[in-house]
Amino acid sequence: QNLQVSNIGNSFYSTKRQKGFIPLATTKEISDSRTIHSFRWIGNSQTLKKVPANSIMLSATGTVGKSIHIPEEFFVTNINQWILQPKQNQPEYKVIYVALFLQWLRNNNYYESIQDPSNGGFIVEAHLNKFITIPNFPNSDQINISSLYSNQVGKTTSTLSDYLANEKKRNSELGIWQL
User: Fold this and answer.
1) Which of 32, 40, 51, 115 is least enclosed by beta carbons within 10 angstroms?
2) pLDDT of the chain along its 179 residues, tens only?
3) What is the largest CA-CA distance in the chain?
4) pTM for this model (two decimals)
């Protein structure tokens, strides 16, 4: 959504959590390891549209090609990125797999070859559709790849004497997002 005053009216921004404010994340807050390292907070009298759960945020300007899987609806963003939403009832591992592939393209400088130079290097939708083909790996491979990023493991039941060993084992199995 466009967060300009002409579209949503006056907003108040903060680097600290404020009562009534909601988290704001842009591609500036996405790390190269596909996590959100910090939030800004936005307060507005209107109900702002949050990024939908199980979607992908892909930067379209500036740091073109940064991508992240959004597992739950909890923050808003601005218009400088694409929010890619999967077909209905798409398993989460498939969406994560696509997000990881899109980041792999960035890590290998692919977006530089498909950016629109007449538009300041912006990625346009036509280029996404025309020049990017997601590899159709078997589901088992997609699950293995996506589990490196998101792999929820239940809490351990520990005593004081074995807590540290159990948590180290659990942490070695968690995905990047959970850590």
Assistant:
1) 32
2) 656 655 677 888 899 999 989 998 888 888 877 788 888 998 888 888 888 999 998 888 777 888 888 888 888 887 677 888 888 888 999 999 999 999 999 999 998 888 877 767 788 878 888 899 999 999 999 998 888 877 777 777 888 888 888 888 877 787 666 65
3) 63
4) 0.77
CA neighbor of 116 nearest in space, from 104, 127, 129: 127
Tokens representing 12 are 């108040």
- At 78, the amino acid letter reads N
Unique residue bearing structure tokens 């300041």 = 120
Rounded distance, CA 149 to CA 70, Å? 12
Residue with tokens 């940064």: 66
- The amino acid at residue 68 is I
